[in-house]
Design goal:
single chain, alpha/beta, Rossmann fold, 12% strand, globular
Length: 339
């Protein structure tokens, strides 16, 4: 493990301590979390943050996709890549990169790339680049956020659905880790235990509401630099949000493209159903994570099939208290009925 922690108080990373001196949380198996700057970060991702701050050189044409985990990250990566690169890779093509590679193998996480290879793979990418991060806005390098920087697209989701999705993902990942290691079966990581941790803000990149708030506030201050998208609205009007995304990235659709159905081709190529059924996402893995683990239901309101009304009310109250006065509310869709 990297032995360097850092400070975000200057443009470049500043060595201040050993990462192992930061608060450690191990009750979120199989992930090890370290607390820094008021957030719980994946230990592996945190290792790359000092280099990200000191080495990364953003380009004016870069677009960085920000998200809290399990809030539509995979979908946004696919949509942004397909939209930005449609001239070189027509979305209706049978050999489109998204048909051959998982979205996470195409759009790289900044902090992970600097943890494993000092970002060399990112530097080799041609412009325009689409990149991604789970870091909160307050911990992004100033080279990204200050002055001209580059554009940021953030996607948010109802915290209750984000929690449920993360619990399923965590359990699936833990099971895969156990199968690989061949170790003893650990005590079950229950829904109730995970809920208590989530309410305390202890989860990957948590607290979720603070993560969302940072990007929301910046989108209000600089809407030309930060586009704030809502997962539920994207489900209701995917084509409209793809048009908004394209305009923000500086590659709006022409009248000819609209007439020929390019927008709908992108929507269909990147739909959860389409991505889920592609052979590349039925097998293979992204690092230790199986490709299929990135796809579940992808609906709004699934929380009602797993959380009690009391749990939902408690989490809603925590979030509402934290966001009071910000102007941000979560657009909660009506829960879908149980099957």
């Amino acid at each position: 493990m990297s032995m360097v922690a850092w400070s975000s108080s200057t443009d470049d990373a500043c060595a201040i301590a050993d990462i192992t001196s930061l608060p450690l949380e191990t009750r979120f198996p199989p992930f090890r979390l370290r607390q820094y700057g008021g957030f719980w970060l994946l230990e592996k991702f945190l290792e790359g943050v000092p280099a990200l701050h000191s080495v990364f050189e953003p380009r004016p044409s870069d677009v960085v996709l920000g998200s809290f985990p399990k809030c539509g990250t995979t979908w946004l990566k696919a949509l942004a890549f397909a939209t930005r690169n449609r001239a070189d890779h027509p979305p209706g093509g049978l050999d489109h990169p998204l048909r051959r590679r998982n979205p996470h193998d195409i759009v790289h996480y900044l902090e992970l790339q600097f943890a494993v290879s000092m970002g060399h793979a990112l530097a080799a990418l041609p412009s325009p680049r689409v990149l991604a991060t789970h870091l909160p806005y307050s911990l992004l390098p100033r080279r990204i956020t200050a002055g001209q920087g580059c554009r940021i697209v953030y996607i948010c989701r109802d915290p209750k659905d984000a929690f449920v999705s993360s619990w399923f993902f965590t359990n699936k990942t833990a099971a895969a880790e156990r199968a690989r290691a061949g170790g003893e079966e650990p005590p079950p990581y229950t829904f109730e235990e995970a809920f208590e941790l989530f309410c305390d803000g202890i989860c990957v990149s948590g607290p979720q509401w603070r993560h969302v708030l940072g990007y929301w506030e910046e989108s209000r201050r600089r809407p030309e630099k930060v586009l704030f998208l809502r997962y539920e609205e994207m489900l209701r009007d995917t084509a409209g949000n793809v048009r908004k995304l394209a305009e923000f990235m500086g590659c709006g659709f022409s009248g000819e493209e609209e007439a020929s159905g390019v927008v709908q081709d992108i929507v269909e190529l990147c739909s959860l159903k389409s991505l889920k059924n592609m052979d590349v996402n039925k097998s293979g893995s992204h690092g230790p994570l199986a490709h299929e683990s990135f796809f579940r239901k992808g609906v709004a309101g699934d929380w009602s099939n797993h959380m009690t009304p009391a749990m939902a009310e408690r989490l809603d109250t925590i979030v509402e208290d934290a966001l009071r006065g910000s102007g941000l509310t979560f657009d909660v869709a009506e829960p879908e009925p149980s099957a």
